[in-house]
Amino acid sequence: MILVYLIGILMGGGLLALMLGQWNKNLSRWIALCALSTGFIALLFFWIDQYRTINIHLSNPWMIDYRHDWIPLFGISFHLGIDGLSLLLLVLTFFLGILAVLCSWNDVKERVGFYYFNLLWILAGISGVFMAMDLFLFYFFWEMMLIPMYFLIGIWGSENRVYAAYKFFIFTQASGLLMLLAIIGLYFIHGRNTGIYTFNYFELLGTAISPGIAFWLMLGFMIAFVVKLPIVPFHTWLPDAHSEAPTAGSLILAGLLLKTGAYGILRFVLPLFPQAARELAPWAMLFGVIGIIYGAILAYSQTDLKRLVAYTSVSHMGFVILGIFAFNELALQGVVMQLVTHAISTGALFIMAGMLKERLHTRDINHMGGLWTEMPQMGAIAMLFAMASLGLPGLGNFIAEFLILVGAFKANVLLTIIATIGLIFSAIYSLRIVQKVFLGPSERQDPVHDFSFREIMVMAALTLSIVWLGLYPQPVINTVKPMINKLEYIFPIENKNTQKENHQATPLNAHQYRVKKQE
Amino acid sequence: MSGNDFFALTPLLLLAGSSVLIMLLIAIKLSHRVIQLSSLFLFAVAFSSLFFIQKLLPYHIEPLLIMDGFSVFIMGLIIFSSLVVNILSYIYFEEKEDSPKEYYVLLFLCTLGACVLAVSKHFISLFLGLEILTVGLYALIAYLRERHHNIEAGIKYLVLAAFSSAFLLFGMALIYLQTGSMEFSMIARSLTSLQSLSPLFLTGLGMMLVGVGFKLAVVPFHMWTADVYQGAPAPVTAFIATASKGGVFAVLFRFFIMIDGFRFKVVMLILIGIAIASMIIGNLLAVQQKNVKRILAYSSIAHLGYLLVAFMPGSMMSIKAVSFYLIAYFMTTLTAFGIVTILSNKETDAEDIESYKALFWQHPVLACIFSSSLLSLAGIPLTVGFVGKFYILAAGLQAGLWVTALILVISSVIGLYYYLRIITIMFAGQKSILSEEKKANPFFYRVSIIALSVLTLLIIWLGVYPSVVISFMEYFRLK
Amino acid sequence: MKSSISIEMVMLLAGLLFVLGIAGVIIRKNIIFMLLSVEVMLNASGLAFVAAGSRWAQPDGQVMFIFILAMAAAEVSIGLALILQIYHQHKSLDIDKLKEMKG
Amino acid sequence: MNNLLWLVPTLPLVSFLILALAGKHVSRVWVAIIGAGSVSLSAIITLIIGISFLSLPPATGNYSQTLWTWMQVGGFNPKITLFLDALSLIFVFVITFIGALIHIYSVGFMADDKDYSRFFACMNLFVFSMLLLVLADNLLLLYLGWEGVGLCSYLLIGFWYENPANGYAARKAFIITRVGDTAMAIGLFVIFYQFGTLVIPDVLAKAPILWHQGAYMATITALLLLAGGVGKSAQLPLQTWLPDAMAGPSPVSALIHAATMVTAGVYLIARMHVIFQLSPIAQMIVAVIGTATLFIAGLSALTQYDIKRVLAYSTISQIGYMFLALGVGAWTAAIFHFVIHAFFKALLFLAAGAVIEALHHEHNMFKMGGLKNKLPVIFWTFLVGSASLAALPLISAGFYSKDQILWYAWASQSGNPLLWFIALLGAFITALYTTRMMILVFWGEAKTAIGHHPGKLMTVPLIILAFFSLFAGFIELPHNFGHFTLFSNLLHQVLPETVLKAGINTELQFQVLASLSTFGGIYLAYIFYYKQPQRIEKLKQSGFAMNLYFFWFSGWGFDKLYNVLIVKPIVFIANINKNDVVDKLYQGITFVTIRLYQSLSFTQSGSLRWYVMGLVIGAIIILSIQIML
Amino acid sequence: MDSVFYIAAFVTVISTIMVITRHNPVHALLYLVISLLSLSMIFFLLGAPFAALLEIIIYAGAIMVLFIFVIMLLNLGKETAKQEKEWLKPKVWIGPAILSAILFAELFYLIAIAHAASYNLQTVNPKAVALSLFRPYLIGVELAAMLLMAGVVGAAHIGQHKKMVLHRFLKEEDDTL
Prior knowledge:
The complex is a heteropentamer of chains A (519), B (479), C (103), D (629) and E (177). Chain B is built from 20 helices and two strands.
């Protein structure tokens, strides 16, 4: 039941913020903040209590499950359930949500109620995506998180926000509709095989589909997730959306919306179409590597700070795809780490870009320079997160990238070597950010104030989490281990050094996924 | 004409009777307000009469009419939409015309025509229903004689409608010649006897498709739509977009179900061609359109294309899909045109897209209603439009129409663009401080807003929890 | 008065009249001529119906013809009323003057 | 005693955290105390551990202390464990001892700099990561230290950030070392998949079993590790960053770019010597790289006018000697030369720093001169350092370490005469540029006035270092000097003996040849720069000499080569593709849609006749479909 | 008997072509009346005497008269003829003519291949028509009434036009007709 409360808090909080928004501005801010923090604390307690019993039942990754009929005629049910991966991403959603609210505290002046309404409903949509265990419900939340984000970019963005909002909405909506076709196709094939027509994820898992159709259905799903997780040919919406979105918007966009793409692949594409996924693997890895190199080169040439950071996240997401389609435990753990650490490091960079825009009223790095003298604290933090984004060991991103590369090395040596060369490019663009913005001669006359207390709190939270993940990532790895073992179970190609006995990838039927009734 | 016949025909009789009653009221020079309220009351009575005849169904009134679940459902929809049009038309005509009396008579007659279409199972009743509807519409379209292009739209509609009715008649004559009877069931019986499709029947069917195609404004015959929608008064446009298309689609559906036209590959090919063409061209025509009425016209062409996609499989699923989509389409189009009606004032209709600038900050309620209806037209979740589109895709994919489903998706993405354009313009700009101009009659203004907000709540509620209507739909089996 | 006219010939005549009506509507610029041509087309379909009725020796064809007449009458009355209005407003019946709504 | 081990790296880390977080609010005195104090404390602890290690050597030959498991993913579970054996003891000793001295020196040197706390924070972070590098027991932790050191060198080279040139030099250093690190990372992957673990002892134990001598995989792994080393130690292909790294303050150059960081490559190769031994080809490549680098760097040093760049090229050249020693299998000689070189190069840099500060930041040697009697302490310590650098026979420590390398270059199993001859030539050139530097800086008439004399804090470390540069050589005497080889006995616990060629004649001739080349170099420099300066003028006229001069001055044109080969193309591609050619694809789609819209809206011409014709065309299409099918 | 049918058919076709091609609306109208008469002749031959009579009375009688009435009201005569003359140049009507020719060819082909056999036609006397009109199709008749009512109400409303009484500054309308 906690799951429904989580979404309920967010939606309710949003509505309340909208209602009270007209009367006084900062009331809606506080509502948003306490809605998010209660959700966050509840999740933390849940995580801690789950963590104790994590390795007892390694075989069943599902922690909690809530099901209620919605449209029985179609077999659609309001079915929420989380396992290690979803729990982790939920904690991340609420954490970044709190930061988003904090960093747009006095940044938004007009229509504040509607702003927080949109913010909270995006988060509700995202947490819904992470929890949905019914394909229809998944699609429902997948679309639901678009509209508020469209409004957020469209109303509170900067110069050509309208164009960016259009591009964002149409890209995701078009690919989402293709996914809807794939979902309905799967629904009917399952119905024809087994006679029961349902959208329930667990029943659909075992559907036997002929390879030809399975490939097309898998492509239908993949297109939606590949556009969301920007892979090179479909990434052009990201830089526009980021450079025009307000700070909180681009924080959520980079931190969470990109993760829904990766989550979708891990949750739906791999388990539902194992054979087709294996066929697609070499291509996907190739596109991942192209993404890494292309994103890095483009990041190098940008002058708009937010566009630059957007291209860096395109490059980092290239690693994610590389890791997912390497199909071994190391790479998948690396992927999950990358999702979490990328969210934190790119989120921090975006917050700082927002702060710089608020202080200098420009995003063009050619007009910045020598800010270290006036803002040493921000300089130091920016240096730390630039180092994180280039994968300095001791910070979270290194663990993620190293695991991905080690895992991918076994699957495809050549691509991994090119990906490692990508690390050099990441060093080039990260150092360029620090050099252009903070170092060099300062030609500014008007004084610029350094961090306020609120900003220090935000930055401290982010720094602590990135360093903690860098030095002791074990809690994250353990939380996701059952889920990854389950995936391993599907893809047991001859990985020598894993102790588990190899056996043929038989399709899993419903009872193997025994759903543990929690309440 | 036994007692039961009369009882079964109460809705039609009520509509005909009330048109005559309204004429009497006009004769004794009553005010516009009284006439409007009485017509509202009579519509409500007709709508409730539908519930009384439930127990009689399915009832055959040989040889012309058939009252079964599906026809009652369609009649309910048509009367509901004319009721909403009636509510909206008061403020529209109160400002533009000193005393618009004949309007309500014609509105009753058109509703009668559409209902006759819904219940007909014979060529004669089909033809008569269609003609009452069309002739009534001639006058309604050209109602505001001097004002902005009404006459031009009227003459265009008249010539084209007569032209297409001639086609329809010629087609019917050919089919009558081939099969020897004008009743759908008899035609079906004679068809089963001969295996291959005789060319005469095929040409007849083709010619009928031209006539029906014109009324449904599907692609090859869609060119009149934009001009008539723009020219006609806003409530009349709402009526054309919903009731007239609904009635014609119902009779086409009944005709194809009875003669099981789905097995003729040629006809199906033509229908698929029409559906795909109208989906793509309908959406493309509206991409950079500056006039809101014309955008809604082109989007209604596209929506008919979607409806045809669900129509083609002809399976049980497609009946449910068509019915649900009709509900969704009716409600959303009524709301959209309702907003256009409310926003138009004495001189100009709210046609130009610029007149919607910063609407969100001046009239937040109206803007919310309009954006929810636009999102429902676009098929975004949380709205009934999405569930309708999902239903259609399900029906289409069940019959394996993969290509049409893909084109549906692509064209609805193009559609997304111009719906979003309107929403963006509503959000752009600042809260202008120009004074709120006093509405001529605040009471009716508020009534229409309440009506529209009820419709919007329905859109959202059905979007989130559609199973109550879907189970209700089980009840309307088509024989 | 038995006569063995083959129905085919009558239908061809109806088709020809129908097509002439269509040609009339397309070619002529004056609205009155358009209405006239539409009347011709309706007449052609009336003929087709009567021919079909006589082929099956059923009165349905003529019943349908009567209803076509009714429809034609109603349509012409409104058409002419519109023509009066157009003439009153535009002082000419040329259809190409009524082109304001486009795009 | 090994539970004290974790204190050694944590002290600099703690002081880094204090200075970084609270740097602003702490007075300069306290900053100096925390900064220099922490490194000195860890030096003292190292001494204690060293003494206990030497007095009663532990059974397994190493102290090991596991702090926590870094991560545990399937078969891959690296732990944070500190591992001290003879090799890392020497390195830790050098890092902490010289580090402490340099910290004390920089307390004086950086006294008037406004970013005082930031400087000490970065220096402490550097010491911490270098210690982590040498104390790591698994390659991942080593990699962490490896990158940490790279980061600190970036921070410290770009310390004076106002001048963009420093920023550029810092980025150049980081990126070039990053190229090496990437190669090393790939090496790590190969090792992980070959042996299933990254713990160094296990890898070295399994390597001979899994690979036969000269195995293909062994060569690849060795070359990858070598690439990593080459990047960090500024050897041949990736050496262009070190001369530019002189943009940082002098203590930084002393600590990072002379004593410790640049020798990380040497440590790595020494630590993974089993793999190199398994592939003779790789070992030969190491030697060749070493020799080529020492020759090129030597000649470039000859033509520099900036005192710090001379020392930078000389460092590259001396590390070239160490690589040569490693290449020919003289493991202990390389480490011995590393220790000695650390002392005298740190001394030279610190002294050069003092000279520059005294002459109001004047770097050009031709503008100095006549400092012999003005700055006596600096002069004498500088003289001792250069003597050791030029390997003055018998008295300077440099002679003993370099002579050993020259001897093994010929005598060792895989040594050959060509390598030896080039090394000898290198020694001659070293002597040449060292003397040139001495004469230009200290002799001749004074061109710029003295600013202020270096304080006590700066001169004491110089004197200590001068003492070691002279007497440190005696712990490892050549065979024919009384067989006193204390240093290599210690190292032979970890590194293998050097196998000599059979029937080799006595070492004496080689020592005589080496001293002859040193004296020749000194004499030639004395003639050219002191006795007859007009000879140089004559040289300047001949075109060929000037071309050669500029060629050597620009570091044999490597900078230009990389610029043209790599930097220009990438920057060009990036700039032309600034707004993302893939976007054109989507702009194309919108263009097509709008073009379609315009053509379709043209059909809505508004004329009724056109609509009727549309209707008729529709009818025709339907009927023709029916006819055709 | 067939010869009578062919003559009537020929007269109908020629007069319909004349309707389309004449410039003067009155001439066109008269030709249309002729074609209606010949059509009623064909009806008679087809054994539908009631339809033939209706054709003459209602169609030729009422609707055509209505047309003439409107033409006279607007006295369109001469200048519409002139206007139509310079409009109907070959360049204009060739395209539509070809279109309708194609349509006719298709219709002709489709009807011709049906080769329906010729049947001996019985006449359907008016009594049978009246019986079927008022027994099975009674509702149809009532709906036709509704249809005519719609026509009347519509025509009445649209026909009303306000005569502009133009005061210098006050535009005031009064309701006539």
